[in-house]
Amino acid sequence: MYTAAAFAVLVAMLLALFRAFAGPTLYDRILAVNVFGTKTVLLIAVVGFMMGRPDFLDIVMVYALMNFISVIGILRFFEYTAKNVEVREE
């Protein structure tokens, strides 16, 4: 059962990677990277339970927090750089 779940998560990760490379806008790509990180968290949790080591959940929580903070940071960066673009005519 866990093997089928891990395979399904891997397929979803591949689809998210495809969307990250083919996304028409920057926000589509960032969302795809966020989905990829979330699926990675899920895959680590499933593999941890497959191996009989549920203590992988500590690693999963740290990785999820890093994924969340990095996506928020990237979005803030692009938000502020888009607002501060000025056209100077000399």
Overall pLDDT confidence: 88
Largest sheet: none
Would you identify the regions where 5 or more consecutive residues have pLDDT less than 50?
none
Q: How does the helix and strand content classify structurally?
A: mainly alpha
> What is the number of domains?
1
Strand content: under 5%
Total number of strands: 0
The helix/strand order is HHH
Helix count, DSSP H or I runs of 4 or more residues: 3
Radius of gyration: 17 Å
Describe this protein's structure.
The chain has one domain. The longest helix has 28 residues, at about 55-85. The protein is flat, with a radius of gyration of 17 Å. It is built from three helices and no strands. The model has no long low-confidence stretch (mean pLDDT about 90). The protein has helices at about 1-20, 25-50, 55-85.
Spell out the key features of this protein.
single chain, 90 residues, mainly alpha, 3 helices, 82% helix, flat
SSE map:
Blueprint: H1 2-22, H2 26-50, H3 56-83
Summarize the structure.
With 90 residues, the protein is mainly alpha-helical. It is 82% helix and 0% strand.
